[in-house]
Known about the structure:
By secondary structure, the protein is mainly α. The protein has two domains: 6-59, no CATH class; 60-288, MetI-like (MetI-like fold), CATH 1.10.3720. It is built from 13 helices and no strands. The protein is globular. The protein starts with 5 loop residues before the first helix and ends with a helix. Mean pLDDT is 82; it is low at 286-290. Belongs to the binding-protein-dependent transport system permease family. Pfam families: BPD_transp_1.
Amino acid sequence: xxxxKWSERIGQSLNAVVLGLxxxxxxxxxxxxxxxxxxxxxxxxxxxxxxxxxxxxxxAYTYLLSTPAFARSLGNSAFLATVGTVCSLAVSSxxxxxxxxxxxxxxxxxxxxxxLTILFSPGIIPNYLLVRxxxxxxxxxxxxxxxxxxxxxxxxxxxxxDSLPAEISEAASIDGCSAIRTWYTIxxxxxxxxxxAFGLFFAVGYWNQFFAALLYLNDSAxxxxxxxxxxxLLNASNIDLVAPGQQVETPPTEMLKMAAIIVAILPVLVVxxxxxKHFAKGAMIGSVKG
Length: 290
């Protein structure tokens, strides 16, 4: 049995200490945000800095979730994450499956155009002009339709479909299945690891929509949670979180900010553990196939 030298032991100990300190430094802001959001308002006003509250409270969350503006923004983000993810998976997977079929006549031309979009991005102004000409300004679909598919995702999905045995599609064709039926009844069920991986990418992207929402959405009632959160953090005093005529005691502003941050990151933290095993498998398969 090999025994480490004293120099190697010292080196490993130093690595463990350094990594431990980095973990504490990175975890502490999240811990502080979590603790402050659950602190009793009276205790927070007395101490200002709370590392472990004596009295826990959900008053900040109750207040936030009862306000129309915050509830609307959560609904908008939930709509983007669900509908956008489903639409993006449908468009990306169908295009990738078509490109994986060697008998597809325009396969090489489409592949060239897709790679071209990866190499040369149109930029902000052409995208804005496109959205405006489509009549999607101040429409929540402006955050979904232009982002239905991207070149990298389509190419990785195509590589995954290339790894599936060609005999499956051939057998389905002999049995009378059309290409579309083969795609959604045979290919998609076999591609759950890849769909879970890319679905997570799409869901996180739509949930975190921020810059596009700032460009295309003028009505604050259509803002996703990230835009409302940014306005709360920068200028909470001008954000009308309470409906007119509603009489409620407002928790401290800092507590509302911390609670809003936790609510904004919670869905991703909850969903990720359930798709982690599919995420690792699907991403690796789609990335190494030539």
